[in-house]
Design goal:
With 469 residues, this protein is of the alpha/beta class. The chain has 14 helices and 19 strands. The strands form 5 sheets. The chain has a 6-stranded parallel sheet, with helices on both faces. Helix 1 packs parallel to helix 6 and helix 13 packs parallel to helix 14. The chain is globular and about 60 Å long. The model has no long low-confidence stretch (mean pLDDT 95). S-adenosylmethionine binds next to strand 13. S-adenosylmethionine (SAM) binds next to strand 13.
């Protein structure tokens, strides 16, 4: 297996040495950080690495921005409102910085990989001194040391598309964890900025993935979600010696791993082998997040999705045939350029036909540099809004219907949290197929598995009772 897809160990070791120096130089200062994460699970996972590296340098997590010595925004740029929101957030920190001049304010993540963005932000916000992109997280120690020495830096180079293994991490919870199996994306869906900011698709070595899962399970985690922009194309470049279906089998037999999830699945690459793996591997969960984006073939073609409505529906049918209790969630974009009323109706009819457990719905947002943004047949905002509303209303009705079939259902739930606002404490968690249920119980059950029977539905949620803890 070729290893030059990886950052050299000597370089990683050098960063660890710098981290130690930063720690030793500042150990009397009780430094704290506050990292705010926007966007998808990839960013959540990156923030865990960033926090881990900061802890390595002697920082601890602050409760609020006001207390922190370092504030970092991990940004998203999939839709354009994120940029306006970020500008507001950064502007608001000037007062804090004036009151505490030693404070470091930084911005990282996908948006920083957009052309010209880093320079623009450094120019516009003199109180920002640290900017870095998605592919240089391993160099954080060096960056922090430079900023501590008074420099203002922006590190957003793309040459570092190679993978950095073994970075420190600070995990946010003790029950579930995200594990990257690949980075970047090669699909170039015509609306999407991800391939431009996250770089080419590259898959991790299967052994590195499994080792990470083993160590997480040892630390008490029982639910793992394998992450990639298109997990089904794992290893397609031949670099890993394993397909995604094989990787599922390889990871699923880690002793103590109760639930194995994965996302996102691209319909063009979800093949029979993956479906069989879902059907037969005992801890692979019966849930597929399968973004459809549109129900109209013409729009799918212009989106460069490389599947048809019929192919999508055939995957749903086949998986339902193989796995009785499987649930699907999806992503949908309305108002893609050229989307006629007829085309939109095709999306509505697909949503009606499939009966998704949930759908993440978006109004198309033109992203500079993408193919679709250059099209002249953009849809007016008012039309996008109306279509989004209609779609959301339909999905809400479908969610209620989907919930109804669960009355009387009994299954194991992993307790994720609790709500103490009402008269009795309500715990909540998910069945293995991703359906969420609320039920009375004691908060001490957090992170454990309990058996819950569904008694009724309440708008979007299932309500149940615990029959065994
Ligand atoms: N890789 C995943 C996939 O293909 O399913 C999706 C990653 S993307 C971060 C998450 C979702 O954002 C997409 O599935 C799509 O629905 C939505 N999205 C991406 N670009 C968009 C745009 N320009 N406007 C609106 N929604 C967009
Ligand atoms: Fe974007 Fe398409 Fe890649 Fe998903 S598969 S990240 S939507 S380009």
């Amino acid at each position: 297996m070729e290893r030059n897809r990886y950052i050299a160990q000597t370089e990683l070791d050098q960063q660890r040495r710098i981290a130690e120096e930063v720690y030793l130089e500042n150990r009397d200062r009780d430094l704290t950080f506050f990292v705010e994460t926007f966007g998808c699970q990839m960013n959540v996972r990156d923030s865990e690495t960033i926090k881990g590296e900061l802890v390595d340098m002697g920082y601890s997590e602050a409760e609020s921005k006001e207390e922190a010595d370092l504030i970092l925004f991990n940004t998203c740029c999939v839709r354009d409102h994120a940029e306006k929101r970020l500008m507001g957030n950064i502007g608001a920190l000037k007062e804090l910085k004036d009151a505490k001049p030693g404070m470091i304010i930084g911005i990282c993540g996908c948006m920083m990989q957009q052309e010209g963005m880093a320079k623009k932000l450094l120019r516009r916000f003199p109180h920002v001194s640290l900017i870095f992109g998605t592919n240089v997280l391993y160099r954080l120690p060096q960056m922090i040391r430079s900023v501590m020495n008074g420099e203002r830096i922006a590190v957003t180079d793309r040459a570092d598309d190679a993978i950095a293994e073994g970075l420190p991490q600070m995990r946010d919870n003790q029950r579930s964890a995200f594990v990257n199996i690949m980075y970047g994306c090669d699909n170039f869906c015509s609306y999407c900025i991800v391939p431009y900011v996250r770089g080419r698709e590259r898959s991790r070595n299967p052994k590195d993935i499994r080792d990470e899962v083993v160590s997480l399970v040892k630390s008490g985690i029982t639910e793992i979600t394998l992450l990639g922009q298109n997990v089904n194309s794992y290893g397609n470049d031949g670099s890993t010696g394993m397909t995604f279906a094989e990787l599922l089998a390889y990871v699923s037999d880690v002793s103590g791993l109760k639930r194995l999830r994965f996302m996102s699945s691209h319909p063009k690459d979800l093949n029979e082998d993956v479906m069989q793996a879902i059907a037969t591997l005992p801890n692979v969960c019966h849930h597929v997040h399968l973004p459809v984006q549109s129900g109209n073939d013409e729009i799918l073609k212009h989106m460069n999705r490389r599947y048809t409505r019929e192919r999508y529906l055939s995957i749903i049918r086949r998986l339902r045939e193989l796995v009785a209790d499987i649930e699907f969630t999806t992503d949908i974009i309305v108002g893609f350029p050229g989307e006629t009323e007829e085309a939109f109706k095709d999306t509505m009819s697909l949503v009606d036909e499939v009966g998704f457990a949930a759908a993440f719905t978006f109004a198309y947002s033109p992203r500079q540099g993408t193919v679709a943004a250059k099209r002249e047949d953009q849809i007016p905002e008012s039309v996008k809004k109306r279509r989004l509303r209609e779609l959301n209303e339909l999905q809400a009705a479908k969610t209620v219907k989907n919930n109804e079939k669960y009355i009387g259902y009994v299954g194991e739930v992993l307790v994720e949290g609790f709500d103490e606002r009402g008269e009795e404490t309500m715990l909540y968690g998910k069945y293995q197929n991703f359906k969420m249920v609320y039920f009375p119980g004691d908060p001490s059950l957090l992170n454990s598995y309990v058996t819950v029977r569904v008694l009724k539905t309440n708008k979007n949620s299932l309500l149940g009772e615990m029959i065994d803890a």
